[in-house]
């Protein structure tokens, strides 16, 4: 067995495979299929200060090699999380990471302060890239100045590792990554979904209630991989890569391009056992290539 | 009830009419309990251009043989390719998903209304409800005689009624035009329905007006089927609920349908 462990700052992950926010609930929803303690981590459903109903149905459109979603951060709010969900996960041996969202900087601060109090939450993923909400979300992640403002404000109240989730809907994602690194981000995760659209030609209507939504799945993998590679060149902090990862080979490609860890998302919808298959597949790859640690392949792309 | 991802063996694919097929799947181990209204999410690998699984409701279960069957009606590319699978093929299935219908009391007289692929759970209820046949009425609607599936294997379980839009089988019109529906609705204690939304809404409206218990099974499009994508939501009196995990069966009093 190869050493699969990686770390972000002082936070140890037993392997580099995490489940992506919005694709695994709070972990318990996939516990029938997956021993959560065998995952590197679980990035839980996007959480906001107040409950959100999310967008109207229809929220999903299947597309070639992928799908659009427009869920709009439906969640029961952070207080419900603390009262009802946190007690059920705090004894599971994995890294449960809260995906933190806000419409305003004040929201992000209030939420981060509450999460900072939770001993068994070792990190947050600061989401400045949700494309499906009218206020906040991606708006913070598409300019260096606004991204920096959020990260700076949250950094002041949150002491544990902070992973900042970046939007790919920008001209230069590496610049944004550098900007948030400068404000104290401990890691960046990318990519969130690409803004897309689906039309029903027969009804001459948009498929999604919100008209546009976020594209995920293998359709975006080459772009995500390119962005992870660019960002890994530009920053010193660890990069968490995601975007269309369906199997171990996909995950290894992201690691080679410079990701310290990966998140598996849309693949879970098709088969929730895929994340653990990826853990095994990475181990097989390392053994086959005579690497003793996964850390040896991170960013080891041969030019 | 634990949900699993399993590769099941297709042991039979029987064409029932021009666009309906019955697929019988065989598990290796004992089946979990599966109740009427529950569904499976099927990976259709042979349709390489299809990305997501497709949900199908369960038609019948044979626990002894470790088999269950699906009624597959061709609606789009996924269901069409699924009907080309042959006995001996393996199919990846996530199951059992969702919640079933509330089973009737022993004294209840029930009306089961099915249309399209919604016929499947109605037939499964007729088999599992445990009521004497005179207390079970099954009302099935389709466009024409050729669109109805043969339900003769079920006919000892209840009184069957048919409608067709062209009058080629049973009474002419929609299910809501049938004489038993128009004249005897108030005599039923519980109404269960699955099928196209306009049909279910029409039934729900009349059931609500008559004050009759009514459950509907919804078919909102979904990605996962087990409550993580949050795409299949239906508006209810207590906010958005996932059709896959909170449904697919809902009591009409919990829905916000404008009926």
UniProtKB/TrEMBL annotation, chain A:
Positions of substrate binding: 45, 69-73, 127, 192-193
Pathway: Pyrimidine metabolism; UMP biosynthesis via de novo pathway
E.C. designation(s): 1.3.-.-
Biological role: Catalyzes the conversion of dihydroorotate to orotate.
GO biological process terms held by the UniProt record: 'de novo' pyrimidine nucleobase biosynthetic process; 'de novo' UMP biosynthetic process
Gene that specifies this protein: pyrD
Molecular function per GO: dihydroorotate dehydrogenase activity
Designated name of the protein: Dihydroorotate dehydrogenase
Highest taxon listed in the record's lineage: Bacteria
Sorted UniProt keywords: Cytoplasm, Flavoprotein, FMN, Oxidoreductase, Pyrimidine biosynthesis
PANTHER family found in the cross-reference section: DIHYDROOROTATE DEHYDROGENASE (FUMARATE), DIHYDROOROTATE DEHYDROGENASE (QUINONE), MITOCHONDRIAL-RELATED
NCBIfam families the UniProt entry points to: PRK07259.1, pyrD_sub1_fam
Main location group: cytoplasm
PROSITE patterns xref list: DHODEHASE_1, DHODEHASE_2
EC class name: oxidoreductase
Cofactor binding note of this UniProt entry: Binds 1 FMN per subunit.
Catalytic activity: (S)-dihydroorotate + A = orotate + AH2
Family under the similarity heading: Belongs to the dihydroorotate dehydrogenase family. Type 1 subfamily.
Active-site residues per Swiss-Prot or TrEMBL entry: 130
Cofactor(s) recorded in Swiss-Prot or TrEMBL: FMN
Residue positions binding FMN: 21, 45-46, 99, 127, 165, 191, 217, 243-244, 265-266
UniProtKB/TrEMBL annotation, chain B:
Cofactors required: FAD; [2Fe-2S] cluster
Record's keyword annotation contains Flavoprotein: yes
GO terms of biological process kind: pyrimidine nucleotide biosynthetic process
Domain of life, source organism: Bacteria
Annotated keywords: 2Fe-2S, Electron transport, FAD, Flavoprotein, Iron, Iron-sulfur, Metal-binding, Transport
Residues the record lists as binding FAD: 54-57
GO-annotated molecular function: 2 iron, 2 sulfur cluster binding; flavin adenine dinucleotide binding; metal ion binding; oxidoreductase activity
Cofactor binding, per record: Binds 1 FAD per subunit. Binds 1 [2Fe-2S] cluster per subunit.
Binding site for [2Fe-2S] cluster: 224, 229, 232, 244
Gene3D superfamilies xref list: Dihydroorotate dehydrogenase, electron transfer subunit (2.10.240.10), Nucleotide-binding domain of ferredoxin-NADP reductase (FNR) module (3.40.50.80), Translation factors (2.40.30.10)
Classification via PROSITE patterns: FAD_FR
Residue ranges of every copy of the FAD-binding FR-type domain listed in the record: 3-103
InterPro entries: Cbr1-like_FAD-bd_dom, Cyt_c3_hydrogenase_gsu, Dihydroorotate_DH_ele_sf, Dihydroorotate_DH_Fe-S-bd, FAD-bd_FR_type, FNR_nucleotide-bd, OxRdtase_FAD/NAD-bd, PyrK_electron_transfer
Pfam short name (any one): NAD_binding_1
CDD domains documented for this protein: DHOD_e_trans
Protein family according to the UniProt entry: Belongs to the PyrK family.
Name listed for the protein in its UniProt record: Dihydroorotate oxidase B electron transfer subunit
Lineage: Bacteria, Pseudomonadati, Bacteroidota, Bacteroidia, Marinilabiliales
């Amino acid at each position: 067995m190869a050493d699969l462990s990686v770390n972000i700052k002082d936070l140890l992950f037993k392997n580099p495979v995490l489940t992506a926010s919005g694709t695994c609930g709070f972990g318990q929803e996939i516990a029938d299929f997956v021993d959560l303690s065998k995952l590197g981590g679980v990035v839980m459903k996007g959480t906001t200060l107040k409950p959100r109903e999310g967008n109207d149905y229809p929220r999903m459109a299947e597309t070639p090699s992928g799908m659009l979603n427009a869920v709009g951060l439906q969640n029961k709010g952070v207080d419900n999380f603390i009262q009802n969900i946190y007690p059920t996960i705090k004894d599971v041996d994995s890294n449960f990471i809260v995906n933190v969202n806000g419409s305003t900087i004040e929201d992000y601060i209030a939420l981060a302060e509450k999460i900072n109090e939770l001993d068994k939450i070792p990190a947050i993923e600061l989401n400045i890239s949700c494309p499906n909400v009218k206020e906040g979300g991606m708006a913070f992640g598409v300019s260096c100045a606004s991204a920096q403002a959020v990260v700076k404000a949250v950094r002041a109240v949150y002491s544990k590792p902070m992973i900042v989730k970046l939007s790919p809907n920008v001209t230069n994602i590496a610049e944004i990554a550098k900007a948030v690194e400068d404000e104290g981000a401990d890691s960046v995760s990318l990519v969130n979904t690409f803004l897309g659209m689906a039309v029903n030609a027969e009804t001459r209507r948009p498929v999604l209630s919100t008209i546009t939504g976020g594209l995920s799945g293998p359709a975006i993998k080459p772009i995500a991989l390119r962005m992870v590679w660019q960002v890994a060149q530009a920053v010193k902090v660890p990069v968490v890569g995601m975007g269309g990862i369906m199997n171990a080979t996909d995950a290894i490609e992201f690691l080679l391009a410079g990701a310290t860890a990966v998140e598996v998302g849309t693949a879970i919808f098709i088969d929730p056992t895929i994340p653990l298959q990826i853990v095994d597949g990475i181990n097989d790859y390392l053994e086959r290539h005579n690497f003793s640690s996964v850390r040896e392949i991170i960013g080891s792309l041969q030019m | 009830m634990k949900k699993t991802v399993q590769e099941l063996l297709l042991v039979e694919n029987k064409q029932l009419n021009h666009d309906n097929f019955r697929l019988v799947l065989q598990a290796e181990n004992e089946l979990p309990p599966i109740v009427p209204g529950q569904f499976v999410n099927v990976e259709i690998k042979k349709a390489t251009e299809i990305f997501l699984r497709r949900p199908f409701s369960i038609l019948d279960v044979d626990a002894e043989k470790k088999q269950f069957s699906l009624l597959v009606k061709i609606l789009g590319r996924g269901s069409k390719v699924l009907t080309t699978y042959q006995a001996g093929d393996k199919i990846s299935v996530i199951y059992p998903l969702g919640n079933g219908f509330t089973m009737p009391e022993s004294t209840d007289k029930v009306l089961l209304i099915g249309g399209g692929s919604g016929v499947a759970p109605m037939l499964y209820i007729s088999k599992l409800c445990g009521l004497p046949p005179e207390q079970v009425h099954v009302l099935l609607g389709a466009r024409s005689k050729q669109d109805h599936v043969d339900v003769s294997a079920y006919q000892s379980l209840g009184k069957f009624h048919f409608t067709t839009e062209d009058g080629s089988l049973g009474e002419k019109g929609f299910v809501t035009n049938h004489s038993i529906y128009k004249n005897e609705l108030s005599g039923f204690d519980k109404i269960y329905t699955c099928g196209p939304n306009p049909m279910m809404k029409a039934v729900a409206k009349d059931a609500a007006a008559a004050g009759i218990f009514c459950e509907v099974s919804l078919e909102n499009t979904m990605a996962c089927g087990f409550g993580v994508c949050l795409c299949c939501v239906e508006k209810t009196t207590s906010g958005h609920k996932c059709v896959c995990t909170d449904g697919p069966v809902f009591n009409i009093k919990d829905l916000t349908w404008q009926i």
